Amino acid sequence: MSKPVIITCAPTGGIHTPTMSPHLPIRPEEIADASVEAARAGAAIIHLHARDPETGKPDPRPELFQRFMPRISAECDAVINVSTGGGLGMSREDRLRAATTTSPEMASLNVGSLNFGIFPMRRKYERWQHDWEPEFLESTRDLVFKNTFADLEYVVKELGGTHGTRFEFEAYDLGHLYNLAWLVDQGWVEPPFFVQLVFGVLGGVGADLDNLMHMHTIADKLFGDDYEWSVLAAGRHQMPFATQAAMLGGNLRVGLEDSLFIGPGELAASNADQVAKIRTIVESLGHTIATPAEARQRLGLKGAAHVGF
C-alpha cells in the first residue's frame, strides 16, 4: 500500500489578481477562513501568502501574516507553510520577512532562478478593479525570478539553521533538482526533503506528463529514500497532474494560488472545493489522505508548539 497522500493547499498566492476571481481570498480574515475550510476538507499543509487588504496586491509585511496565522493555528491543526516567494519583484529581504518573524514549521523555497511570465493573462481582461493589476502582469515580460546559489545558501542557513524551519523545495525545471542536490552535498539541508515539482508556469517546465515522469525519475536518482515528492500544476492542468501524482504514489498541491477553476470554464467557489474534489478523486483510487500529524512525522517537522505566532 502507498503512503497516505499529503494534500497541500495554497489559498491565495501572489500571482492571480482580484479582477480574475471574486473568490480569491484577499483580506486577512478571508485568508484565515479559506485556510481553515481547506484544512477541514482534508489539506494537511496550508501554504500562505499575504495581500494588501485594500488593493489585493501581494504584501510581505509580517503584521499581515500575524493577522491570520494565529487564528488558523487555533482553529485547525494543519501545518502552516509560509512562502518565501512573496510577490514577483520583491527583494530577498522582503520575501523572507514573514518567515523569519514567525518561525514557522515550514517555508517554501524556490530552488532556482527562472523567467516567470504571467503577462499573457493581461490579454484576458479589459477592465480592472485596481490600477496595479495590469502593470504587475506586464512587468513579468522582463522579469527574472531570482534565486541564486547565494540566495539559496542564505535562506537555508537562516531559516533552517536559525529557526529549525523545514522547506517545501519548489522545482520549476530539471536543473532546480540539481541545485537542491548541491545544497544537500554542502550539508546545509538534511532529509527528509519535501520536493514540490511545479509544471505549467511560462518560463518553467511545461505541463506535459512526460516531463512529470522524467523529473520524478531524476528526483528518485538524486534523493532516493530521503525525500517526499509532490506535484502542482498551473491552471487547467491542476487536477490532472494532482491525480497523476497520487496514482504514482506521490503527494499533491491545489488551491487558488495555482488555479482559479474547479472545472472547464467554472471558477472554484473556494479553496475547500478544490481540496474536496481532489480528495474524492484520490480516495476513489483507493488511497487515503494524510493527517497533519502524519505529515509532520514524515517531513520531520519541529511541531506547532515551536513556532513564533
UniProtKB/TrEMBL annotation:
PANTHER family xrefs: 3-KETO-5-AMINOHEXANOATE CLEAVAGE ENZYME (PTHR37418:SF2), 3-KETO-5-AMINOHEXANOATE CLEAVAGE ENZYME-RELATED (PTHR37418)
Known cofactor(s): Zn(2+)
Keyword annotations from UniProtKB, A to Z: Metal-binding, Transferase, Zinc
Species the sequence originates in: Streptomyces oceani
Keyword match Zinc: yes
Phylogenetic classification of the source organism: Bacteria, Bacillati, Actinomycetota, Actinomycetes, Kitasatosporales
GO molecular function, one term: metal ion binding
Signal peptide from the UniProt entry: none
Official protein name in the record: 3-keto-5-aminohexanoate cleavage protein
